[in-house]
Design brief:
By secondary structure, the protein is mostly helical. Helix content is about 60%, strand content about 0%. The longest helix is centred in the middle third of the chain and has 36 residues. It is rod-shaped, with a radius of gyration of 29 Å.
């Protein structure tokens, strides 16, 4: 199997044999490596932000009278 892989890489028809192909593969490997380091931190930060949105109020979140009683100065 390794022999087939080496032949495929050396083959002129494969995209990896060209300089652009090697740069593309290198870029993909670099991106995958960076994402493995960034993903856990991003997941934790997103979880912290969402917990602040979901636990911001101490009550049940219900508003008794959302439109008000109409007794304010601006009411018609």
């Amino acid at each position: 199997m390794i022999k087939n892989v080496k032949y495929w890489i050396k083959n002129e028809d494969s995209q990896v044999s060209s300089e652009t192909g090697l740069l593309t593969v290198g870029g993909l490997l670099l991106a995958a490596g960076v994402m493995t380091l960034v993903y856990p931190q991003a997941k934790t930060a997103f979880g912290n932000i969402m917990s602040k949105f979901t636990s911001a109020s101490s009550g049940n979140g219900m508003v008794a009278d959302p439109l008000g009683t109409g007794q304010a100065d601006w009411a018609l």
